[in-house]
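Narrative of accomplishments. A recurring question from our advisory board has been how the design workflow behaves on a single, concrete structure rather than in aggregate. To address it, we present the structure tokens for one chain from the evaluation set, followed by the sequence designed for it. No filtering or post-editing was applied between the two.
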């Protein structure tokens, strides 16, 4: 199996995150290594929203609310879900801050 010692320990994004692209001769991560990576980033990181990311999410939420057709209401729960997804992406990218890219 894979242990935590085989996972990246650097906080540099280039060194820490797995490549999702497949290159000739490159190995994909095993399920065990992926699970170990997710466990570690969940323990190490609790990302907070940057000001720019917060503004972007707020703008998107307001735009969705104003365009809502009424069939599926856009509630605060929608905004909370966007925040959780952004935080999860930042965690996977080995960051403590949610950035615009997340």
């Amino acid at each position: 199996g894979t242990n935590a010692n085989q996972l990246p320990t650097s906080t540099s994004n280039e060194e820490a995150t797995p490549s999702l692209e497949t290159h000739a001769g490159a190995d994909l991560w095993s399920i065990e290594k992926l699970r170990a990576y997710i466990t570690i980033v969940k323990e190490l990181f609790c990302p907070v929203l940057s000001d720019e990311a917060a503004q972007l999410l707020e703008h998107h939420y307001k735009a969705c609310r104003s365009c809502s057709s009424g069939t599926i209401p856009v509630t605060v729960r929608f905004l909370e879900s966007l925040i959780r997804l952004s935080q999860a992406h930042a965690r996977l990218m080995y960051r403590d801050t949610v950035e615009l890219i997340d």
